[in-house]
Amino acid sequence: MKKSVLLSISLILVILIFVVLTTGCISLFTPLIKIEIMQMLNKLGEANVEGNVDKIIIHYTDPYTEVNHLVSEDEYVISLEELSMWLEEDLTYVNCLIDDFSNEEITILDTTNATVECDEHAKFEDLFEEGVFYESIDRVKLTLIKVEGDWKISIYELLASEEVL
Question: What percent of the chain has a predicted confidence (pLDDT) above 70?
Answer without folding.
Answer: 82
